[in-house]
Structures are given as C-alpha cells and as structure tokens.
Amino acid sequence: xxxxxxxxxxxxxxxxxxxxxxxxxxxxxxxxxxxxxxxxxxxxxxxxxxxxxxxxxxxxxxxxxxxxxxxxxxxxxxxxxxxxxxxxxxxxxxxxxxxxxxxxxxxxxxxxxxxxxxxxxxxxxxxxxxxxxxxxxxxxxxxxxxxxxxxxxxxxxxxxxxxxxxxxxxxxxxxxxxxxxxxxxxxxxxxxxxxxxxxxxxxxxxxxxxxxxxxxxxxxxxxxxxxxxxxxxxxxxxxxxxxxxxxxxxxxxxxxxxxxxxxxxxxxxxxxxxxxxxxxxxxxxxxxxxxxxxxxxxxxx
Length: 301
Fold this sequence. Notes:
Blueprint: E1 8-10, E2 13-15, H1 17-21, H2 33-72, H3 77-84, H4 88-100, E3 104-109, E4 120-125, H5 127-133, H6 136-152, H7 154-177, H8 183-196, E5 201-206, E6 218-223, H9 229-234, H10 237-250, E7 255-258, E8 267-272
Antiparallel strand pairs: 1-2, 3-4, 5-6, 6-8, 7-8
C-alpha cells in the first residue's frame, strides 16, 4: 500500500504540483507509463550526442595524421608525434587504423651504421590511399605527357624526364664525389641522398664467394618508395633516365632489376663493385637512340 505524497513518484520520476493532482488512482495509473518512458529517454540522448561528437573529433585527428603522412612520408611514428603534438600511443592507434584500411603502408629503412638494430618503420601513402585522395595531378600530368608525345614525338617526353632528373644529379653529385672512388662507398652515399629525398633507399653489399671471382661482387640499391610510381608505369622512360643518372653518379654501368612501376616490391638497381669508378664530374644525359637499349636499361621481374 503506497503512502500519499504531495509530489507523486512514478518509478523514480517525480511528478509535482498540478501534474501530480492530474494522476488518477487505480487502473488509470497505468496511463502514465508512456510519460515515464519519455522522461527516461531524454537523458539517453545526451551520451548519444557526445558519442557522435567524439567520433567526429577522432575522424578529424585521423585525417590530420593521413595528411601528414602524405606530405612528409616516409615518416616514423615518433616524427609524426613531434610534428602533430600527439602522444606516441595516439599516433600508433591512428596509424594502425589507417594501415588496416589500406590507405598507408609501412616501409622498413635500414638504420645507419653497423649493428644499428632492426630496420626503422616508416609510413607512406599506399596506392589505394593515393586513389582515395584523388589523382587529379596524375591525370593532368599523364594527359600533358601524352599530348607532348603526340605533338613532338617520344624524344620530347624523354627530354622532359632528363630535365626532371637533372636537378637530382646536380644536387647529389658533390655528396657522392666526397665518398671517393670506392664504388660501395659511392652507392651508400647515393642511398643516403635518396632516403633524404623520401625514396626509402638502402644499399646492401653482396660479396662474391669462391669459386666466383671477386669482380662479381656488387651492391643492391633498393628504393622502397617512388613519388611518381603511377606516372612511370605509363611512361617507363622516367625509370630509364633515373637509371642513367645512377650510372653516372656512381661511375659504373648499372642495371635495373625491378621497379615499383612494373609491379616490383621495390626498385632494385644492380651496381657492380669489382672495378674502379670513373670518378669525375658527371656529364649531362645525352639523347639516346630509341632503337638502342643499353645494358643498364634491361629489366627482369
């Protein structure tokens, strides 16, 4: 038997004043249940709104991480944290999510110095990520190069590629010359310069063992990232000209074994170390007869 009160309580919700006097007794009390359900639903709307707000904030933060990878990649989680002012745990949470969705990928970069431990993890935008963000710049460049080829012929496209890589050659040449005549040292200097420019490069020495002659020793120069990968897939002359630049910089004839543009996991360049380098100022790229394919332009899967 319930005790009468001035503010009638229905399942914990107080109904006061005139509302209390309007509540009938007996069977009619059941009619307040819809009001009770309505009163209970109001507080539930607050957490829902807060959850949506938190989700939006999370998405905005994740977009900032993605844009930072796009602009500064290859970049480590620690560098991203410093750049964006996030804790390491927050950065890794967003990186893990972006990697699971396929828009970024991890490139492993060998640390400098002997015994430096495991390769560092660096993040770059994946092919899917580039597609998701839009490839308007790539479409424009592709159309422009196709029109250039149609109007002036393949040699005009090649000359465009030569001019693009000429800046790389000018910047890298003094640094590589400081490495001296040793081919391995020059290849390592080239690798360091490429990594600084975001190509995620590494240089691994491969020593020929008996009964093979020492002249067969080499360095495998690998590039884990290429900013013009999709463009080079349509215009392989970009890979060819880059290989020519590498050959002049290290001072020996080199050979491209695989490229990202043609489906390889990395771009790999074979650099023989069994003979001395032709040390000196690299000469500018000369036009090549399209019917001639030199040794260092050959490629195999």
